[in-house]
Amino acid sequence: MPAPKEVVELIERFDEHVDDYRNGRYNETQLRRDYLDPLLKALGWDVDNVQGFAEAYREVVHEDIVKIGGNTKSPDYSCRIGSMRKFFVEAKKPSIDIKGEPAPAFQLRRYAWSAKLPLSILTDFEEFAVYDCRVRPHKTDKAATARIHYWTYKDYTDKWDEIAAIFSKAAVLKGSFDKYAVTTKGRRGTAEVDEAFLDEIEGWREALAKDIARNNEELSQPSLNWAVQQTIDRIIFLRIAEDRGIEPYGQLQALHDGHNVYARLKELFQKADDRYNSGLFHFKKEPDRREDPDRLTISLRIEDKTLKEILKNLYPPDSPYEFSVLGADILGSVYERFLGKAIRLTAGHHAKIEEKPEVKKAGGVYYTPTYIVDYIVKHTVGRLLEGRTTKDAEKLRILDPACGSGSFLIGAYQYLLDWHRDWYVNDGTAKHASGKNPKLHPGRGGAWRLTTTERKRILVNNIYGVDIDSQAVEVTKLALLLKLLEGETQLEMFHERLLPDLGDNIKCGNSLIGSDFYGVHGSDLIDDETRRRVNVFDWDKGFPKVINAGGFDAVIGNPPYLKEYTYREPFHDLKGTRLEKYYQGKMDIWYIFACHSLDLLKEGGLHSFIATNNWITNAGASILRTKIGTETRFLKFVDFGDFRVFKTASIQTMIYLLQKNQRSPTVDGIRYRRITEPKLSQSEVEGFLGEGRCDGFGIAFEASLESAANGSPFTFTDFQDSSLLRKIKARGSYCLSEKDVAQGIVAPQDFVTQKHIDVLGGDDLQAGAGIFVLDDAEKQNMSLSADEDKIVKPYYTSEELGRYSADSHNRLWVIYTPSDIKEHITKYPHIKKHLDRFKDVITSDFGPYGLHRARDERFFVGRKIVSLRKTSRPQFSYSEFPCYVSQTFNVIKPSDIDLKYLLGILNSRVVYYWLDKKGKKQGDQLQVDKEPLVNIPIRIADKQSEVDKQRRDQLVELVDQMIVLHGHLGSARTPHEKERIQRQIEALNSRIDRHVYDLYELTEDEIRLIEAAT
What integer pLDDT is reported at residue 663 of this predicted model? Predict the structure, then answer.
């Protein structure tokens, strides 16, 4: 589309006066008013907040201008959707050479890179430059570095389509901005601010740890970890306070010159203690504080060289960081990963940095994206505040029981701050901005702000957290204090001086294990290391007022995900304690967090977690499902399917929202939403969470749950689906029994991996070589004896096992050794020699010679049905030959039903529909495990009914034809031949489906519902 009329008029007016504008007297304020405000309006942005949004949600924020160290800070415009920044616009007067001068570009890029914005604009209207702000800024960069577009005002007419397609409000809302940002990513030098700052502070930790360990040999390992963490936190706090104008700019930088750096740094820390009264700086005993003062770090010896290297990199031009815009979410992301490692002291008192065992077992740290935090906070804290007054809000208590770096508590606190400010403004600024205890004061640009006293009151009154990690607790406190100070100035801080001590709000302890642990395990028998690791916490002692008042109003967060088979200790510690009642096999630790969160809630309180999505069908979550079904009102369920919320992990996630309602629990009217398209932009996911239209990438309906009180799997269905599923269940007169189904063989080391090579060494090993599973050549090379040959069995994969048919020509063989093989291994010398080579990596319970789980051999011989466990649609195959398979498959071998009749039903659309709605799923994949298999309602022909007998015989005949056709398809050579057979298979599929529809007596409307869903 051409440039709109108002833009053309701007171009003409600018062209007419361009020489006057270039003389330097025309300043940025005039430029913004005359040209940039109208330009942004033409792109659809509400520059003047005509829509009257609350301050927290206005689209364009004219950033506060603060003089720091003689320089003007903050970009001129921040364009936002909701409360989330999308890009900055930095204005310069027309006398500045944007194309050639490096300084303006470096300034913009520092702002945007530190705020983790992908793109931003530098403009004086005459010139318009777009920068990729993921490229780390360096002091030697030229003006053209990371610049991806450059236009002059004369280009606006021809290039308007291109500009609007990226930066218009409509483009941002549609996700075009995010998609464009993704397509421009990947250039050399791209390093996002959180990754870079994480590297930075990890370097600080290593340097400080080695220095302090070397110079303070009396320190224990816990003391060393605490001292290093406190030193880093204090430096970061003071540096951020400088860039925000609260502390004198450059005071840390000044320490770089001269000697005795730590002595002078301690002086700054002690001044901060006098000024802020915060637990972060607490060096003197005070009568009204229960926490002991820090005497440890005051007595440390730290070398000048170590501290000078840290301090040098805190300021430009050496530092790329603009701390004034380094958001709490970015710091949280950095710290969450930073806390995944700890310092270990060697026998020689040398410091080593190592990943924490629980993090290693969990597969890493999962930091929650801001948009997820915002969603959960909105639907818990926001819901609790609807229709309330500030007097009501005083009573709210918000908890994160595994707070980590504090992201959820920061989100909840920010929501409370915005809500209180808007409530006071709407209730009358004259009333709340005057008197002895004002709640509001005018900020720059006339925007109302909460006073520091009020911000402190809200924080101490409403926000609570617990974490087992003492370092995480300190980081959460730091993050909350920085959030409290956001937007404050030096003048305001002198007027309202003190920060709160958060020791009563943020506690260090084990949310799941109380002091009854000592009674169970014997207090005298527990060593200091176990005491530190378990770190018991009693809720009634930690938060007595809250617990005595009935509990918390909201419990939110992202709990730790940990399976028992990966890390047994936390589960073992629960034995005999109060929460052991929530333990069961095959569970995840977060299920216990969820159960206990409901215990900690008041009646009517709200609970919401983001966590793995398979709990709704996982056998190990039946206690959690029972508790939810009997004690809550189930409000919302958001399933992210295959969309990766956590970019570094492939886990599939969901969000639930529950209201504690023990008197009348209900699982009807659940707002259910599921993403069906994994490759979405963040804007599209945010729109989806905003409960707008799904636009083809998701589904949404009002759902209900059946049998929610007995721990059975949860399946979310609408009214039509529920009715049809009940009918299918009623028509079914037979189910497989547990003894009819077995999972395939668990080796678990089938082939050599690179990790095995790293352990075993040797140049002759290659990834993919056989351990328990061999190819033909490997089997041949082993020169097996007759006895050995008997225990090497034909092994099949999805290459040979398809839908209906199975190819008997195997490519692989499995060394099928039972659990007692060790007693007879001398009979199998070649197999022993082969497996001995791998004994250091074989983890079988019966290793190194026995399979971990060999299974009952009867399942692998004779007539049987083999089922693929993870599949997009059901895949059941029939075989009569010996067919040994891995745990990728289940084997079905009942004795009381015709297997081919059963095969036709299992491969039908009716069963596909049933498994899709009632079975287990991982994202969009069905997980056809034993539990869903034994719950499929199978229609058995009535022996007295001639019609039923005829239907059964016809179905078996069609299945026989299908098996033959699939065999022909596998041997077909030409594309034409394959296409012809495939058409026959599709026609036969339809006939089988029609027979199964008739068996279940389905109507045409019901058939249409099934076919639309499958």
Answer: 81
Q: CA–CA separation, 113 vs 231, rounded Å?
A: 25
Q: Cα(343)–Cα(224) distance, rounded to whole angstroms?
A: 8
How far apart CA 15 and CA 9 sit, in angstroms, is 10
- The secondary structure of 238-254 as a DSSP string is HHHHHHTTSS-TTTTGG
Please list, in sequence order, all residues whose beta carbon lies within 8 angstroms of the beta carbon of residue 655, skipping any fewer than 6 positions away. 372, 375, 376, 608, 609, 610, 636, 637, 638
At residue 70, the pLDDT reads: 45
442 DSSP β-pair partners: 448
The segment with the largest mean pLDDT, out of 577-591, 698-712, 935-949, 959-973, is: 577-591
- Summarised one tens digit per residue, pLDDT across range 908-942 is 999 999 999 888 887 778 999 998 999 999 998 77
- Over residues 704-725, the mean pLDDT reads 82
pLDDT category at 73 given cuts 50, 70, 90 is low
- Mapping DSSP onto H, E and C, the string for 632-659 reads EEEEEEEECCCCCCCCCCCCCEEEEEEE
C-alpha 197/C-alpha 18 separation (Å) is: 42
CB 554 within 8 A of CB 607: yes
By DSSP bridging, strand 463-467 and strand 506-508 are parallel
Q: Are 95 and 70 in contact (CB under 8 A)?
A: no
SS3 54: coil
Q: What six digits make up the tokens of 675?
A: 């993403």
CA 322, 323, 325, 326 dihedral sign is positive
Query: Which residues is 921 bridged to in the sheet?
Result: 926
Neighbours of 946 (CB within 10 A): 8
- Of the listed ranges 167-171, 474-478, 773-777, the least confidently predicted one is 474-478
Quick one: which of 939, 992, 938 has its CA closest to 965? 992
**Residue 38 Cα distances to 44, 45, 47, 273, 963, angstroms:** 10, 9, 8, 48, 70
Instruction: Give SS3 for 986.
Output: helix
Phi-psi category of residue 691: left, alpha or beta, with phi > 0 → left and psi -120 to 50 → alpha:
left
Distance separating alpha carbons of residues 877 and 864, to the nearest angstrom: 8
pLDDT-based confidence at residue 495 (cuts at 50, 70, 90): very low
Is the separation of the CB atoms in 252 and 238 below 8 Å?
Answer: yes
Reported pTM: 0.80
Confidence category of residue 544, pLDDT binned at 50, 70, 90: very high
Buried b (16+ CB within 10 A) or exposed e, 160-198: beebbebbbbebbbbbbbbbbbeebeeeeebebbbbebb
For residues 265-275, b (16+ Cβ closer than 10 Å) or e, as one string? bbebbeebbeb
DSSP 841: T
* Residue type at 939 in one-letter notation: R
Q: Are strands 889-892 and 741-743 parallel, antiparallel or unpaired?
A: antiparallel
- Residue 788's nearest CA partner among 813, 754, 752, 757 is 813
